[in-house]
Design goal:
- 3 copies of one chain form a homotrimer.
- With 138 residues, chain A is an alpha+beta fold.
- Chain A is built from 3 helices and 8 strands; from the N terminus they run ββαββααββββ.
- In chain A, the strands form 2 sheets. In chain A, strands 1-8-3-5-6 form a 5-stranded antiparallel beta sheet, covered by helices on one side. A 3-stranded antiparallel beta sheet of chain A has the order 2-7-4.
- In chain A, a hairpin with a 2-residue loop joins strand 5 and strand 6.
- The first copy, chain A, is elongated, with a radius of gyration of 16 Å.
- The relative contact order of chain A is 0.39.
- At the A-B interface, strand 4, helix 2 and strand 5 of A face strand 3, helix 3 and strand 8 of B.
Chain lengths: 138, 138, 138
């Protein structure tokens, strides 16, 4: 069994945003040399998300509005977590979107359907945050 | 390390529905010959879900109503994604329910609690859509 | 390839609660002797959750309030599942929080960011319920 590990770092200029990280994940997979196995991508911070969906800007605006409806940023005082912090909503939004994805690796490729793309979802940005890629297989 | 891959295809007659796919996943596991490892099942389409819960029709109706409350299908115009499409709600519903499950394989069986069953959740049906099963282990 | 399996059992005194199980998961990883691989932790019951977030009591109160808003426990009659049962809300809450986490194992440790901790989330307590830990690697 082979294993491979890599970290990516993202610093988004706004509080929230989505970044398509599929190219970086594909590069890591190529670097690993693994042909058959399982690939894990997870946010290492608890106010960010990794998820798989469509690379379509209208949908991303829908996600932003929908998450604000489910877990509004303001007023900050509605959350007990917001004593020294103001990011309780970011913890909730990341919970909806998910911490991680697990992807099959087949013949050295991400084994994806036609529209699957991997996104980094930031909900408390403006500082460097890390993403972990771990691959095991042969 | 051994690895195994299979695809299932579903075409549901309605826009939304849940299908218990545990028997097909068990058959794939038997076909793989893998005794100890990890099994991944994921929707290959971004308006469908794989999740684990109870095979109880009342609960499934509750899921349907609850998802319609969290991410209503209509009016279509509430979503930016709905220019050429009308399925933005399906992307959101699938996000709540999840893209994938990872299941332990122990002594050649799905290592499940008493009520765990694997479901395909369709949120934009009436066309063929694929599910990926990947198993690694020994 | 090595594989390791362990079960934890929790009986919470209230209907709902969160327990930091990171120490028990770390102990299982140490017992496994696995240095590089993937670790799966999942609830074996469909009204409980395993998730990764911050060990901060204010945030946990926020989660409790937020989940009650998204999927209220009462009135019980609002859910079709609640014929013989009263726990439909627990199935929905666990869906939001997730069934499982997959964690990278690197150099014999959980490969975590600075604040990541693993929690058992109970939504229908007062009886013994099990959590599965499966690790594969080398």
């Amino acid at each position: 069994m082979k294993s491979y590990r890599n970290e990516l770092t993202f610093q988004l200029p706004e509080r929230r945003g989505f970044v398509n990280i599929t190219p970086q994940v594909e590069q890591s997979l190529a670097d690993s040399g693994i042909q058959e196995g399982i690939l894990l991508v997870n946010a290492m911070h608890i106010t960010a998300s990794i998820f798989i969906n469509d690379d379509e800007s209208g949908l991303h605006r829908d996600f932003e509005r929908w998450l604000e409806k489910l877990a509004p940023e303001k007023p900050y005082s509605q959350y007990d977590h917001n004593g020294y912090e103001d990011n309780a909503d970011a913890h909730l939004k990341r919970t909806v979107m998910g911490r991680e994805v697990v992807v099959a690796v087949t013949q050295g490729r991400l084994d994806f359907g036609p529209w699957e793309q991997i996104f980094y979802g930031e909900f408390d940005g403006r500082r460097p945050k890390r993403v972990l890629i771990k691959i095991i297989g042969e």
